[in-house]
Design goal:
GO molecular function, one term: phosphatase activity
Helix content: 25-40%
Largest sheet: 6 strands, mixed
Oligomer: single chain
Strand content: 15-25%
Order of helices and strands: EHEHEHEHEE
InterPro entries: His_Pase_superF_clade-1 (IPR013078), His_PPase_superfam (IPR029033), PGM_Phosphatase (IPR050275)
CATH class: Alpha Beta
Protein name: Broad specificity phosphatase PhoE
Radius of gyration: 17 Å
Shape: globular
Strand order of the largest sheet: 3-2-4-1-5-6
Organism: Corynebacterium mucifaciens
Distance between the termini: 38 Å
Number of domains: 1
Length: 200
């Protein structure tokens, strides 16, 4: 049986001058740098045998997918199951000395980092993301598929294929990075991580 590769692409940089945790909020688009990152990521797929392309419905993922569609000739499918993780702190400023997480009213959401208690459980994120990976693998059997998603859903898959617990303290999933899973039938036999936009 021919091997199938499923590539997980994180979106490019978002224009967010107010440093808001935007999560699933609409209206957050790629910055000019993010658009350049998307183009750099698309070049990774030039000449590859991609037969299926899907993206999260959020603007930043759709905009990252467009240059990939141009390179591969695939139409972008929209998938809700590769959406950004849900987060209680969505809409808040969470970085720097003006972080709204300093307010004690938020602390009740920080009781269990292993779940995590402030958002969508890691296991639920993994299950929906892995379901999308398996569907993409089956759809592109013997070829390659691309899913344009977000950092945390991709990290859940990375940790699963490495045999690590889903709870974590650090992540290796740069903007516009590509995590590639190689399947032989239903089994992941190899995986790789690439940063085609690292120079931007």
């Amino acid at each position: 049986m021919a091997r199938t590769t499923v590539h997980l692409v994180r979106h490019g940089e978002v224009y967010n001058p107010k440093k808001i945790l935007y999560g699933r909020m609409p209206g957050y688009h790629l910055s000019s740098r993010g658009s350049s990152m998307a183009v750099a990521a698309s070049k990774f797929f030039r000449g590859r045998d991609v037969t299926y392309l899907a993206a999260s419905p959020l603007e930043r993922a759709q905009e990252t997918a467009r240059p990939i569609a141009e390179v591969t000739g695939c139409e972008v499918q929209t998938r809700e199951d590769i959406l950004e993780a849900g987060n209680t702190f969505e809409g808040l400023r969470t970085k720097g000395w003006r972080s709204q997480l300093i307010n004690p009213v938020r602390w009740r959401h920080m009781t269990n980092p292993l779940e995590p208690s402030w958002g969508e459980p890691y296991q639920e994120i993994f299950q929906r993301m892995w379901g999308a990976v398996e569907d993409a693998r089956d759809t592109a059997e013997g070829h390659e598929a691309v899913l344009v998603s977000h950092q945390l859903p991709i990290v859940m898959v990375q940790r699963h294929v490495q045999g690590k617990p889903l709870a974590h303290a650090s992540r290796n999933c740069d903007l516009a990075s590509v995590t590639s899973l190689v399947f032989d039938g239903g089994d992941v036999v190899d995986w790789a991580y690439t940063t085609p936009a690292q120079h931007i």
